[in-house]
Design a protein that fits this description.
- The structure is a single chain.
- By secondary structure, this protein is α/β, with parallel strands linked by helices.
- It has a single domain, classed as Rossmann fold (3-Layer(aba) Sandwich), CATH 3.40.50.
- It has 8 helices and 9 strands.
- Strands 1, 2, 5, 6, 7, 8 and 9 form a 7-stranded mixed beta sheet that branches. A two-stranded antiparallel ribbon has the order 3-4.
- About 20% of the residues have low confidence.
- The structure holds flavin mononucleotide.
- Flavin mononucleotide binds next to helix 3, helix 4 and strand 7.
Length: about 240
């Protein structure tokens, strides 16, 4: 327990020091509420992509854009939610796929992460220090067919899990629109939109949605309402 608290204090100290978290989302988890952390971060995002490709009815939005919902998420013991069967980000990814008709793809590493929270934080920190690119299990079929990539991940040590960098570097994102969402326990968006845009200069990364993991896990109606609002603001639905 002492280690958990130490880790989270370090996390929030790092985020505060480097200024990655937004002021409103930088509240320690104990003071966060379901409504104040499930925030739509930007309202003026627009996805006006058009596509003549209608080969898959299920993954084409009303705007005509073919959508991939690619996410990383970890089940097991986690901060603030106990031990869960389904990760917080996965819950959101499934809702987003359901709402958009997008194709769901889980980013999974060949070597799974420990289900113990403490052990996982150690592995994740080491990977971040090493700037690692963990090997991924599977590839997306026909990646080129998608116009819009909705990208989901938890915040790990004030950043995306390193496996997301492997994912971003595995495909040609030229001309694609990337709409990120994340779950976190206080760091908010943590500057990840900028990091995605830097990793993908040939794509357009829009500012995304940050939801507290505990809210996604335990207040699904509220989470779904937030997602619907966000998708509508981005003209996805
Ligand atoms: C390795 C690790 C590092 C984390 N680092 C942060 C962090 O820097 N900031 C934060 O707000 N939450 C942090 N968290 C909490 C997760 O972002 C949060 O629990 C998230 O909802 C987990 O999503 P998942 O269940 O989809 O994996 C961390 C969790 C883990 C396991």
């Amino acid at each position: 327990m002492k280690k958990v608290i130490t880790v989270m204090i370090m996390v929030f100290s790092i985020v505060t020091l480097v200024g990655c978290g937004s002021a409103t989302n930088n509240t320690p988890p104990a003071e966060s509420s379901a409504t104040d952390t499930a925030t739509v971060q930007k309202t003026e995002n627009r996805i006006l992509k058009d596509s003549s490709d209608s080969s898959s009815e299920n993954s084409t939005s009303d705007s005509g854009s073919k959508i991939l919902v690619a996410y990383f998420s970890r089940a097991g013991e986690n901060y603030n939610v106990g031990t869960v069967e389904k990760g917080n980000t996965q819950i959101m990814a499934e809702m987003i796929a359901e709402e958009t008709g997008g194709t769901l793809f889980k980013v999974e590493t060949v070597t799974p992460y420990p289900s113990s929270y403490d052990e996982c934080t150690d592995v994740a920190k080491q990977e971040q220090n090493d700037n690692a690119r963990p090997e991924l299990k599977e590839a997306v079929d026909d990646f080129d067919d998608y116009d819009t990539i909705i990208l989901g991940f938890p915040i790990w040590w004030g950043d995306m899990p390193m496996a997301m960098y492997t994912f971003l570097e595995s495909y040609d994102f030229s001309g694609k629109t990337v709409l990120p969402f994340n779950t976190h326990e206080g760091s908010g968006e943590a500057g990840t939109t900028g990091k995605i845009q830097s990793a993908l200069p040939q794509a357009t990364a829009l500012e995304g949605l940050a939801v507290q993991g505990k809210t996604a896990q335990e207040d699904r109606n509220d989470t779904m309402t937030t997602i619907q609002k966000w998708l509508s603001q981005n003209e996805i639905n």
